[in-house]
Amino acid sequence: MYHEIIIPSATKQTIQFPEEFVGRQIEIIAFPVEEKIREVINRNNALDFWKANSIDMSNFKFNRSEANER
């Protein structure tokens, strides 16, 4: 894995990768670092959402015959 944080000075940048990346397929993802902070906050909000909107299935009984009726 290769990880680097840069502050671009122009819209075009040159990236030098480690020698072991040569000849291999790699994936490049770029996003502002601030977005990563928002992602963590959004994950916490998503967890709160699921807790608030979960369905109580403690009394649910599965009926295989009913499920397989045609």
- Percent of residues in helices: 25-40%
- Determine the strand fraction and express it as a percent band: under 5%
The helix/strand class is: mainly alpha
Q: Given the C-alpha coordinates, what overall shape results?
A: elongated
What's the main sheet like?
none
**End-to-end gap:** 52 Å
Q: Helix-strand pattern, N to C?
A: HH
Our Rg estimate from Cα atoms comes to 24 Å
Count of DSSP strands: 0
Low-confidence stretches: none
Mean pLDDT: 80
Number of helices: 2
What would you say this structure looks like, in words?
The chain has two helices and no strands. It is mostly helical and 70 residues long. The longest helix has 20 residues, at 33-52. The mean pLDDT is 80.
What's this model, at a glance?
The chain is mainly alpha-helical and 70 residues long. It has helices spanning 33-52, 64-68.
Features:
2 helices, elongated, about 0% strand, about 70 residues, mainly alpha, about 35% helix
List the helices and strands and how they pair.
Blueprint: H1 33-52, H2 64-68
